[in-house]
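Lab notebook, bench 4. The sequencing result for the construct came back, and we need a structural model before the next group meeting so we can plan mutations. Quick request posted to the team channel:

Model the 3D structure of this chain.
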Amino acid sequence: MAEKQEPQDTPVAAAVEEKTVNGQPITEGNDEGTEEDVAEALFPLTISLPHDDSIKIHIVVSPQEQIHELRQSVIEHPDAFQYSCFHFEHEGERINDFVQISDVKGLGPEAEIRLVEDPYTEKEARIHVIRIRDLVGAAGDRTDTLHGILPGVSLFDSVAVEAKDVDNVQASTYDFDAPAKTSALLPKEEEPAPRTIKSVSLSPWNPPPYHLRQKGHLLYLLITTNEGEQYQITSHVGGFYVNKSSNSKFDPSPRAAPKAYSAHSLLTILRQISPSFPDSFEALLQFNNRREPLATFQMTNAIPVAPWLVPSQSSPLCAHSSDVTRTQEGYLIAGVDNTDTLRDWNEEFQAARELPKETVQDRVFRERFISKLFADYTDAAARGAILVARGEVTPLNPTEGRDAQIFVYNNVFFSFGADGVGTFTSEGGDDAARVATGKDVNGVRIVNQLDIDGLYSPATVVVDYLGKRIVGQTVVPGIFKQREPGENSIDYGAVEGKDVIAADERFAAPFEKLSQALRVKKHPVWDKDGKRFDLEASVETKGLMGTDGRKYVLDLYRITPLDILWLEENDVDAEEDGVRYPHRMTVLRPELVETLRTLKWSEWINAEIARIKERSAKEKSENKELEGSNAKKDTDDTEMEEKIDGSNFSFSLNPDAFSGLVPQTAEEKKEMAADEEDVRNACKHLRDVAVPDFVNDIQSSSLPFPMDGSSLAKMMHKRGINMRYLGKIISLCEGPRLLRLRDLCLQETIARAFKHVASKYLRYLPMPLTSTCIAHLLNCLLGSAFNSKPVAGIDESLKSLYPEADLSFADVSPESLRKEIEMQSAQRFKVPLAMSPSWYTQIKHLQLLREVSLKLGLQLQAKDFQFTSEPSSTVEKVTERANGEGEKSKRKKKKARDNSPSSVASATAPSTFNADDIVNVVPIIKDSAPKSSISEEALEGGRHSIIQGNRKIGQELLLESLTLHEQIYGILHSEVARAYSSLAQIYYQLEEKEAAVDLARKAIIVSERTIALTYVKHALDLWKVIYGPDHPDSITTLNNAAVMLQHMQSYHESRMWFEQAVAVCERVIGPESLQAASLLFQLAQALALDSEPKAALSKMRDSYNIFLHELGPENNNTKEAELWLDQLTQNAVAIAKRDKDAQARRLRAGIKFPPRHLAGSTSPSTATAVLNDKQKPTKPDARSIDDLLKFIEGSSAQKKTTKKRTTRAGPKTRVGAAS
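Done. Here's the predicted structure in token form:
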């Protein structure tokens, strides 16, 4: 960010200053003592357990840890699984759970604390039952209404098992030309976990009657053991015991001996009543320990990603089992009155913001609390939004139109992202309202990140679900309050349109801080009477004084100016061809404004330095005859920085420029004209600099090549480029590498256009008809080559239930859908698909299906989708079965199908998709949660220290950053995955390979569970599904895999991977490129190691010619290739001469042997190499590299070369940097 260049405290500096060990700041001076300080900071603690003094738990803790973190560590210890309701005591004194370990008097190294069981409350008892059910594997599958099927599933374990079962040669075999397999995205089926208990459920005798509640009864449980015995259990304040009740008789008093089992923990009771339980529980723990812990942990602070492809519902992975307790979990979680889940979200958020943040510990606690709060709120708001979309929540204003209705559910305020009341009529109606809600949630996130004292914002979540956009916000106190006559409903900003404007002075100070941070210029606005108001923010940004006395900022969708050049250009286009952009909410991105500010800051600094140098030179020339001029020269240079005052620099833009405001005086008009010119220059920078630079950086590999639409959007947004500029980017793509970028941009354009078209048809469609609609639209988009006239199989029984439903989607044909997509592409992205009439034949079907599914939240049943009419036996079977075409299936199920509204027999031709393939639709959620600032500061501080050479301090800060990430976000969170990945790269550069691999493994697991090899092979399989063949960055992956195989002395396999890398490079970048030359150089070395000297010579000659042509004869790469070429030429001549002499000797002796066949003599292609390989043993060459080098260099008869080189030497232009 630009602030780092200013002469003020930076986050990096703050992180280094704040880093402490045992309360002592780490500075460069105490570098040597760092390790000792850390060692002293951690100390062992002994915890003695109740009932058995011989069992003690030893845990290493930090003084900065809180007691409740220690409590969690104890609960997860195998010896303390049974405890959930307890407290700690030290020297007879109870320890508060919410204090730091360092605050407990006398608690230090070698101290011992006691775990003391507490009496249960009803809530504690419910939590204990839920925990024990999860622990013993009795929880069954949970049906979730939000997260979808297999949410957060990890493929790591199944891929890792494959990796262990194969050797290097097997692992290196890979079919590069095989089509993408959807099975690569599905987890492998596993053996079921050991069964410890048949069921743990709530008894029908719940809840306890009043007179027994008075005696301490909390719950009644029903347990069935593996032996088939059934027990009724009473949960009492003192623990659990077996009672005398049966299914027909109620008697919750304790049983008599020998079945008088009782214990404080339910786990202990299970051990007592079931003889097989201890062994089966131990087997379950061992079964769970075989899996990677990160792949099984439950997510607490992040919504797990839902896969777009899921197994068939008949798969064991999706099996729906009978479990009576599944319906009882709501009672166990929320209690009998369901009051545990009702929360005052707004008060919780604002109180959390008011928590102290003076010390590092304060900041960690505050940010962790806020992170958890946002996660809980996002989950609750998304669940409520789905209910609103399904019509299951009663509106507060049922007499209004559908889009104008508002709702309150679970203390969350919901409204539709549509122009229900005409607010955005002049801006573009529903399209403008939809964009405004998306911009608003981004604005709220920025305000939350800025964390300005005294300014509050409602937590905001936007949910896209089945064509509807729903906004969920916390209820601001006073927003529904009826104001007195003449009193404005808003205290700052526009009140009714822009006719009435309020400017309460109480909001000026916090809004000024906000505007400075957002680079917003203080500017005048005028109401309908021409009265002037000077506002700190956009007139659309509103301030509201809540009834709780807090100042709230609302409507943050206009924090940046309009992209006026886009609007003007589209108005011109509208006159020419009738294609008009759908709305006027074309604002610039905040990232672009920040980039501009950085640019202006650099220009200002350079101008200041030049001005100071000029003034100094002038002073020197005037005083050159005076003595001491040399001394003055030194002081001038050292004082230069002090003379530059950063406070004199300012950069800001007027967000209300070009928004229809009418200045009154000449001076005001002049000021507005200057503001408009600044905005116009910003728009020019976006078009003339930002977009071309983005394309050039991808071409030169300064930016990684995007993998899919999501990564493309992130990269564009990071550069401040809006998605509407996809057409501009496509027009700049020339050359082989950029043609791939062009194809990806076109695919993203089509996917986004289809999303808008599909949303139009889905928006008001009844829920049971949505699967039919989605399947039909997908058939028109992707299946027209298989069935050119798909028919929407609408169930007539459902159709009759919804006589008012808009079923216009049934009239859509592939041709009409293409026209709609062409119109949306031309309107929204300026991509003229209609100019190339056959665009739909060039799409990558599977990749486009994935993009569309991710954008609409579709979960499809995994199968081999048939997109074309080419015969495929497996696909035909799948399609036939899915469409109910099999004769046997028809005969068996005809009657049932005729009477069932949930299944439709298709009498028409089979299609690529049918309604049963659309298994589920999950919501697409955008939240306003801020990132943790302290963990980012520690990460930046660590990087900064390592760059400066302070390795120990740097590593300590990096580890501290990782700990902070895990503490604040929880282990499973996308931000934690990013931290793991960053640290893995840093540790790899520091030559700490083991730590780097461990962190990379964690990054993979957390990423796939929160973001949606053998490891390399699995990565290539995913590449084929996500992008398709020939992704530019796959060249590096193939090259790395080949080098790995070469290190393992699998020379033949290595050469095959190098050949594939060369083939992809020649197709993507070009056969005469430097990247191709570098790869050819490595391939030649690999061929030499694989005993193919003639083919090696051919490839090295090709490499040398490219280097010579591109870099000239004096370049080091050219010289190195020439040296190898000479060496390989001599070897080839010597080998040919030796073979000729040997053949002559045989002929003289009268022996007719066939001549030695030189591999690669006809062609250095892969096919020839494989053919010739049959004449060689398939096992890897057992000779050492030194022996191979001697063989490559020829036998003893040859001259020695000037210098020996190892096989790993190569040109300095490496593929990793170039491709």
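The first strand starts at residue 20 and ends at 21.
Will bring this to the meeting.
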